[in-house]
Amino acid sequence: MPFVHDHIQRVDKNHATGINFSFNDREAHGRIFRFPNWTEPHYKHVRGSAGVSTVVTFSSLEYLVDDYFISVVCEDVEAFVIHQLKNLTHFSLNTLETDGDKKMLETIINRMCRCLENSLQSRTQKLKVEQLSLSVLEINQAVSAVNLLDREILRSVILHLPFEDQVFTADDFIPLIEGQGRQRLDLRIKLHKFSVEVLEEVRKLLTSTSKQLNSITINYKTIKCIELIVEAEHSSDRNTVKFSIDHADDPIEEMTMLNLSDNKCHLNILEVPSIMQSISSHLECPEIESLRKVSRGIRQCVDYIKPDPHILVYFMLLKNSSSVVIEMMNGKIEAHYKGSLEQEAVRIVNDFDLNTRHQKSRMNWLYIGMDEEIWKLKEKDDSVRTKVFKLLRDVLASRTSPLKAKTLTTVITMSAEILTMLQTINARSHSIVCILMSSQYRDAAKVKCGPKRMRSASVSG
User: Fold this and answer.
1) Superkingdom of this entry's organism (predicted)?
2) Where does the pLDDT of residue 91 fall: very low under 50, low under 70, confident under 90, or very high at 90 and above?
């Protein structure tokens, strides 16, 4: 019986927006995202007088299940996959770092891949997921799973090869990529050693499947051929090499040629405001930004029209190596920032201004978070925290109309800056929920703001 799945379904009928499971040979961690909350079950193998059991922990409660831990995990994975009706932004089955039994971990990886394949085969319709992340022993395990997904929705595949002796060839990946159809794929491979042999296979893959790919990114622990890589972006601090593919041979310009009578008229119809208005009303944030980069004339037309980016979720997290996640109906954007906290704060807010400046529709969720260490700063060292909310207040106040957000979640202290910022969020037809942090990080309160009220009630941290 699917233990965690059934418990969650009793209290929350919403379908998941993202599903992550990480495991080794002794335990597993889950994270099930259900807007605007998430559940984090933990499964741990225990051995007692009655035999092998599993301690399952979630929602601050512990349960003892009389079965091997990976069997309990697989039943939950199968239930979540089979009963999922809505699109998932991401689905992940990956190994945790471990110094345990390699043979046992190999057995568990095989079982998890088989569990995923069986549950996907049991569905009446293909699962719609934008990003799939898997730890595999053989590439064909990923191919089997990907072929059971809706390829029109799939945008990114991340494969983790957890053992040092794992190798791959370009031919292994061709069946995975060739079935992609119109939606180009971003492929990421996580491995131990980036060698000359790996480089050659990546180049073969790029040559044979470039029309179906946007990029291939390699995450490595050691690299032996960096001096030979001239066609890729190398990030030594993140141990990544990214091979981007230029699709300049298929520019939007080719779609904007009109044949008038027998004469070819090089008229860029995307520079006509009425036509751009019609086209852009169906676009989302990434497509709008891509259009702006095509030509100066198109950029001026887009800026004149001011199309709504249709952002559903905007997630900002300030910490060492800050991040932003933007979700739309048909995709997701992730950005990561490097620099001092103050520099990151400025860049995050500037990007927030650029991305949401013309947002007219209501967001489902706006999240503004900060790492625990930032909230522990003494008042005299509080410049970063204060600066973020001052900048956000200025950005929101500069809008022609208040930003609409169904739910605002933010880890804050109730200061004048925060109250001023809240006044710039439209609360006329919905509520705003904030997490208010006291001097102790774990103490929190939930505030509900409406057009004529603000009330506070205690909640657990």
Assistant:
1) Eukaryota
2) very high
